[in-house]
UniProtKB/TrEMBL annotation:
It comes from the Bacteria. This is MFS transporter. The chain crosses the membrane at residues 39-58, 70-88, 94-119, 131-150, 156-174, 195-213, 233-253, 265-283, 289-311, 323-345, 351-369. InterPro entries: MFS, MFS_dom, MFS_trans_sf, MFS_Transporter. Residues 200-377 form the Major facilitator superfamily (MFS) profile domain. Its main location: membrane. It is found in: Cell membrane.
């Protein structure tokens, strides 16, 4: 594996590990700070808002210094933020560190996608599917590390502090090994061509609906099985586990599938598969059927997100970093909508109707998927 490919892969993995460590450490932070559930929900919303600002920060840096610098700055910000989250014992300090983490989260999300698109363009073959699979593996690893730390009776916040050193190492190594992309300012691209705003909104809608589904499953799958279908404490978390497994397998298969059938066909099939999964969740009479539905729903998130960002990189290659930064903001809008909307549509057994919204959203963007370029040039 070439150094640049290894570094970009490491960036995706570290992002997954870091986010999983922060999320799984929320109960420990809740106990340390004496937080209520409403405050935790507000914190997660604040992270999404700060991450959207971080995507803008990545855009600003990439235009002037290139995406390599943007990604390294993002990891540097995360390092400081994770250290603050780990060490904070007072609520204002903790909240400031979490906000800073959100800023770094968005900067790294955008910067890693910029680097991935540049890497794919250099290789001439689809690569975002496998890179996103590395992110998924990193998330699983982060969750397992958190469980291992808990088994040793060590605070999960200690793991967050350890991950800070990982982010610091990537910020330093990235200066040498990440792709040295040419800033848009130096190419004169800003003066030559305006950003394709309509196309950005179209591709962004694919990212939006994928993260609406992802956030809905992440937030509500276990609650629905437990409260709505009266599944056992053993079975209830299985839905999210099989969903993540499908997402991972789909991401591993996305690049070969795009090479064989084209980006358009794979995206359409994934959207239809995701909508079918949501239908099984809504209509399924038993927990077993719902678990199958969650697994099938993972097809959409697994394939659509990498395909959408790959398409974004081709909308205006001379200004691809700026395009990707803007498309990346749809990620956080979808995450907020997916975590809130299902709970507003029903509770208990009626929570199943909360998954009608993601299903409709997936079907509504089918015309966008049908207009994607069929393959990587």
């Amino acid at each position: 594996m070439k150094p640049a490919t290894l570094m970009v892969s490491a960036a995706y993995a570290a992002q997954g590990v870091g986010y999983a460590a922060v999320v799984t450490a929320l109960p420990a932070a809740k106990d340390r700070m004496g937080l209520h559930d409403a405050v935790v929900a507000a914190i997660l919303l604040g992270v999404c808002v700060a991450a959207a600002l971080g995507s803008g920060l990545a855009d600003t840096i990439a235009v002037r210094r290139g995406s390599r610098t943007a990604l390294c700055v993002g990891f540097g910000v995360q390092c400081v933020a994770l250290a603050g989250i780990s060490l904070a014992h007072h609520l204002p300090v903790y909240l400031a560190a979490v906000a800073l983490y959100g800023l770094g989260l968005g900067t790294v999300d955008a910067g890693s996608n910029m680097q991935a698109v540049a890497l794919q363009a250099r290789a001439g073959v689809p690569m975002l599917g496998r890179l996103y699979s590395v992110f998924t593996v990193g998330s699983v690893l982060g969750a397992l590390l958190s469980a291992a730390v808990a088994a040793l009776h060590v605070s999960a916040l200690t793991l967050v502090g350890a991950v800070a050193f990982v982010q610091l190492g990537l910020a330093a190594a990235g200066r040498r090994w990440l792709l040295p992309t040419v800033p848009a300012r130096d190419t004169g691209a800003k003066a030559r061509a305006p950003l394709p705003r309509t196309a950005i909104w179209a591709v962004g809608s694919l990212v939006l609906v994928a993260y609406v589904l992802d956030s809905a499953v992440s937030t509500w799958s276990t609650i629905y099985l437990s409260d709505g279908l009266r599944a056992s404490a053993v079975l209830a978390p299985v839905a999210y586990a099989v969903y993540q497994a499908t997402v991972l397998l789909t991401r591993l298969a996305t690049d070969p599938a795009v090479l064989r059938w084209g980006r358009r066909a794979v995206a359409v099939a994934a959207l239809l598969g995701g909508a079918t999964g949501c239908a099984l969740i809504v209509l399924g009479p038993t927990a077993a059927v719902a678990v199958v539905g969650f697994a099938v729903a993972g097809l959409a998130v697994g394939a659509v997100v990498p395909i959408a960002f790959a398409a974004a990189g081709q909308l205006l290659p001379a200004r691809s970093d700026e395009v990707i930064a803007r498309v990346n903001v749809f990620n956080y809008a979808g995450a907020v909508a997916g975590s809130v909307v299902p709970g507003l549509l029903g509770t208990g057994a009626a929570l199943r109707f909360g998954f009608v919204a993601p299903a409709l959203a997936l079907l509504l963007v089918l015309p966008v998927a049908r207009r994607l370029r069929p393959s990587v040039p």
